[in-house]
Amino acid sequence: MKNLMKNTLILIASLFASMAYAQVSVAYGQEPGHLKLTTVVHKEEVTVTDAGERQRQLVEAASVLPGDSVVYTITFENVSDEAAENVTIVNPVPENLTYEPGSAFGPGAEIEFSVDGGVIYGAPEELTVTDGDEIRTAQAEDYTHVRWVMQDELAAGAQGTARFRARLN
Questions:
Q1: Residue 5 — pLDDT band, cuts 50, 70, 90?
Q2: Domains parsed from the chain with CATH numbers
Q3: DSSP string, 153-167
Q4: Which of 24, 35, 100, 112 has its C-alpha lying 20 to 30 A from 144's C-alpha?
Q5: Cβ atoms within 10 Å, residue 114
């Protein structure tokens, strides 16, 4: 029974990892075909070198168990002959994951979050949620989407990267 439960969790986690690759990031502010987006999901693996140093590396998220962290990396490339202006990348935080505070990364981008399915975005301190009769400041577990708003244009042929980490519930 214990092995069956463990194998079921691994199967569910493997299915999750496969579906995570299908999660679609979206780019706004550009003509169709202006930007090429690729989203990849990895998990972080910690190894110890012969010298006793801990090293972290990203590996394919072939199996993920509850409590494991995954890293979403969105690569975007301007495939047109013109500079891309107002580039905005949006990625949902899947329902069975919790965003890890402070993990969103994107050079040259203002990073915002949504707690309402991507309708309204803001900085963490600006977001609120209604909890029963009470309005409270949103927490990382409330985030439904992460958005990167590029502050500069993206030159023709240039690439950018956006990343965040989330934990499987």
A1: very low
A2: 25-42+68-168 (2.60.40.1170)
A3: -B-TT-EEEEEEEEE
A4: 35
A5: 21
6 or 56: which leads in pLDDT: 56
As beta bridge partners, residue 148 has 89, 111
**Any idea which residue has 């956006």 for tokens?**
162
| Count of CA atoms in the C-beta half-sphere (13 A) of 135 | 3
For the purposes of burial, counting CB atoms within 10 Å of the CB of 11, is it exposed (0-12), middle (13-18) or buried (19 or more)?
A: exposed
Q: pLDDT tens digit string along 115-131?
A: 999 999 999 999 999 98
Q: How confident is the model at residue 32 (pLDDT cuts 50, 70, 90)?
A: low
**Alpha-carbon gap, residue 164 to 169, rounded angstroms:** 16
Q: What is the DSSP letter of 23?
A: P
- Do 73 and 88 contact (CB within 8 A), yes or no? no
